[in-house]
Design a protein that fits this description.
- The chain is of the alpha+beta class.
- Among the domains are: 110 residues, Beta Polymerase, domain 2 (2-Layer Sandwich); 129 residues, no CATH class; 36 residues.
- It has 20 helices and eleven strands.
- Helix 5 runs parallel beside helix 7 and helix 8 packs antiparallel against helix 11.
- The radius of gyration is 26 Å and the shape is elongated.
- The chain binds adenosine-5'-triphosphate and magnesium ion (MG).
């Protein structure tokens, strides 16, 4: 049997990037031989094994044939006769379809190296169209390598557009889609992921709520970039520049969905877009079965981001309601993430990227003030049950009034 490094490890070494996980392909072996060497099988009918020591993935060379819709509709054929070239041709991009032996000899039948040098994301064969997930994967790689100057080859873009129009994208499971979306959002230029999906018409299939934001104007005085879609891309870009976690990035992407619902005659104003957007945010959350923390933060940011921007003008009672909605007493981290998303929203405006956001510290201070109210003295005064709750609220309100007064001197 011959063993080769494949995929990302070869690509990233040639790009001079750090290689994190290594995928291997094994040519000329049977499952029985792998098991005899101590490899552990990963799936029941999938010829992939884990190395007994390193835990890295070793896949038997295989060919694939499409036999139905979606990813379930694939038949695999793995046998010792399958050649390295046959295995490589089933892969998505030429830059992902190179193999390397232990002497670093490159096998590159589909010219991945040439495309690496030309900074092109190009599909390997027409079989690309057999798995709609590849549309998301290409958009994700575009987001990752945008800084190096990579773009999607026009003929690959055309195939991606075909896939978007064929209805195949709808056959993707929430789990497979979310895995790509969440990884793409964590790349250095996540806005490129959305741009590429939009350019191939996949965005209006996957997230029509986000697609609808393009072409929707906002008041120029607050939003020099005017277009809501462009604003959303900038907010996402800021979230990556500021190294925000996935929860914040997801909330940034979805925060303004309500603006897509404003009747044209009301443009460029978007009255009550925060509340109107909630059902759209919920729909996108559920479509991709986003993790609970992402879902929660997106809804809270959608509902309250303009409160964040107006923080310094909020009445103490409104401030208190905001803090209660976030349960800042038990969930301080979530409130921090809300503040971060608001700041990214404010910075995601053309020409205002560097402007200070004093609301952030003001909100933090308010949370600290409300949290500083001690319950013990109230218990000692004999408050209990609902009255205790009311008494705590009164004390917190007092603390916030004092905080607001102190802050304005
Ligand atoms: P990363 O750095 O994100 O891990 P990678 O290229 O290693 O990038 P993996 O998802 O680990 O990506 O997959 C390893 C290889 O398997 C890819 O390089 C590609 O050749 C192939 N591959 C993975 N998923 C697909 C797919 N859906 N369609 C075609 N080829 C795929
Ligand atoms: Mg990999």
């Amino acid at each position: 049997m011959q063993i080769y490094k494949v995929g990302g490890a070869v690509r990233d070494r040639l790009l001079g990037k750090p290689v994190t996980d290594i995928d291997w392909v094994v040519v000329g072996a049977t499952s029985e031989e792998m098991l005899a060497k101590g490899f552990r099988p990963v799936g029941a009918d999938f010829p992939v094994f884990l190395h007994p020591k390193s835990g890295e993935e070793y896949a038997l060379a295989r060919t694939e044939r499409k036999s139905g819709r979606g990813y379930g509709g694939f038949t695999f054929h793995a046998s010792p006769e399958v050649t390295l070239e046959e295995d490589l041709i089933r892969r998505d991009l030429t830059i992902n379809a190179m193999a390397e032996d232990d002497q670093q000899n490159l096998t590159d039948p589909y010219h991945g190296r040439r495309d690496l040098e030309a900074r092109l994301l190009r599909h390997v064969s027409p079989a690309f169209a057999e798995d709609p997930l590849r549309v998301l994967r290409v958009a994700r790689f575009a987001a990752r390598y945008a800084a190096l100057g990579f773009t999607v080859a026009p003929e690959t873009m055309a195939l991606m557009r075909q896939l978007s129009e064929s209805g195949e994208l709808q056959a993707l499971t929430a789990e497979r889609s979310w895995k790509e979306i969440s990884r793409a959002l964590m790349e250095d230029q996540p806005q490129v992921f959305i741009e590429v999906l939009r350019a191939c018409d996949a965005l209006k299939v996957l997230m029509p709520e986000v697609d609808a934001l393009f072409g929707v104007p906002q008041p120029e005085a607050h939003h020099p970039e005017i277009d809501t879609g462009l604003h959303t891309l900038s907010v996402l870009e800021q979230s990556a520049l500021h190294k925000q976690p996935l929860t914040v990035r997801w909330a940034c992407l979805l925060h303004d969905l309500g603006k897509g619902l404003t009747p044209e005659e009301d443009w460029p104003r978007h009255i009550a877009h925060e509340h109107k957007g909630l059902k759209l945010i919920k729909a996108v959350n559920e479509r991709f079965k986003a993790p609970k923390d992402c879902q929660e933060l997106a809804l809270l940011v959608g509902e309250y981001h303009t409160h964040g921007h107006r923080a310094l003008e909020l009445k103490p009672s409104t401030l208190l309601e905001l803090l209660q909605s976030f349960d800042v007493y038990r969930r301080p981290q979530r409130f921090e993430e809300f503040i971060a998303a608001c700041e990214m929203d404010a910075r995601g405006r053309k020409g205002l990227e560097q402007r200070n956001y004093p609301q952030a510290d003001y909100l933090r201070g308010a949370a600290t003030a409300a949290r500083s109210v001690a319950v013990q003295p109230l218990l000692e005064k004999g408050f209990k049950g609902p009255e205790l709750g009311e008494a705590i609220k009164r004390e917190r309100l007092k603390a916030l009034k004092a905080y607001k007064e102190a802050a304005s001197v």
